[in-house]
Amino acid sequence: MALSLPALNSCRDESLEPTLQQSKDLETSINTVEDLNAVLNAGYNRLSGVAYYGRDYIIFGEVRSDNAFSNANSNRFVTAARMDLTVNDAYAADTWAAIYGAIATANVVIGKDAATITEGTTAEINQLKGEALIMRALGHFDLLKLYGQQNVTAGGDPTLGIPYVTTFRDQNNLLPSRNTVQEVQKMVMDDLNEALKLMSPSANRNSHYFTTHAANALMARAALYFKDYSTAESAASKVIGQFSIAPAGSFASTFSTDNAMNHIFAVAASPTDNLGINGLANIYQDTPYGDVAATKNIYDTFSATDVRKAMMAFDGQFYRNVGKYPSKDPYKDDIPVMRYEEVVLTYAEALFRNGKTAEALIQLNKIPANRNAAPYAAATLSNILLERRKELAFEGFRFDDLARNGMAIPKVDLLQTFGDTDLPYGSYNYAFPIPATETGANSNIVQNFGYK
């Protein structure tokens, strides 16, 4: 049912919204660039939802790692942290639906015939279509990382990915099958390359919107995940120099600043438009929710002078992330989805993987040089992954970094709830289950290995 996708909502053009809600013909509902942009804005709004980048997707990458755990303060993220979700778990169902909802909105924009747009230039239309293609690529890549079988080696079919949906309400394919991991990889890259063909750097908007830089940053991220290190290096190199690494003195403030110097793409929030108590600040900090605490292990990873250590705090019971997404009442902080520092570290790893260790070390040491931390003596995979862990902590990257490198989930804290020892790489629960709501509605969907 999620793949058949309900009518769009949250459009920010009042004259357009009821037309879409009534499911009228989209060809007559979208006539101008402003209409097209209103639909795309609905997609950006979907990205900010609690089940996607507003909270849950980021938390999934942390509580299933050695960075954080659920303390069950309000019984949130308990099953995700234990890695024992069932097919009826709301976390699996809600995020599946939320991401495919964003993809549906993107597909409306992508599928709109430019010839039927009566107001607006071809360049303006192409820029919006390019942004939608990036949104579609990001959504499918994120779905694959969560539900794909590429990291499940103890049984099942490791080539099984997720359905790559390219048409809004395709009457000929309302019950799509799962594409293979390789097919998803190709389609993600194809969408990003097509976006770069359509878009112009001179027409890029601010970091609340996808840009040509975001397309290259996402391409580098995906290529690194798929072990295509040549593409990762090439794509990352196109972003290098376009932004600035936040210096030590202002690094913390970039998490409470709109369009900060290191933001490539961020989900927008404001004092009047935010998730409130359902957002990241309320789940990470010592609040009535406060379910996601940090491990002492990640806290001890930072040296005493490292500015990132000061962005954590001990509340007498738990270590907390208080520096990223810090604002409460109101919960107004933007949520960076792509930061420049990530691209620098991706570039360093790609250079290392491609045998360019001297260049890799230069890029790697740019981060600690701006965090009051000691430089690395050598570029090694261990050092690069350590710096990624330190720099990107609490932003949702850690589980994927462990998984894409074939690593177990380390048991570093007794409060981690997935078991008594490291969770071996390849276990069935490295992937979320396909929601029962989906398998029940779509007979072509195969359930993930290990789930009933």
UniProtKB/TrEMBL annotation:
Subcellular localization(s) per the UniProt record: Cell outer membrane
Keyword Nucleotide-binding assigned: no
Family to which the UniProt record says this protein belongs: Belongs to the SusD family.
Domain SusD-like N-terminal: from-to ranges: 25-223
Primary location: membrane
Lineage: Bacteria, Pseudomonadati, Bacteroidota, Flavobacteriia, Flavobacteriales
Presence of the UniProt keyword Acyltransferase in the record: no
UniProt name for this protein: RagB/SusD family nutrient uptake outer membrane protein
Segments traversing the membrane: none
CDD domains, sorted: SusD
Pfam families linked: SusD-like_3, SusD_RagB
Keywords on record: Cell outer membrane, Membrane, Signal
Occurrences of domain RagB/SusD (ranges): 326-451
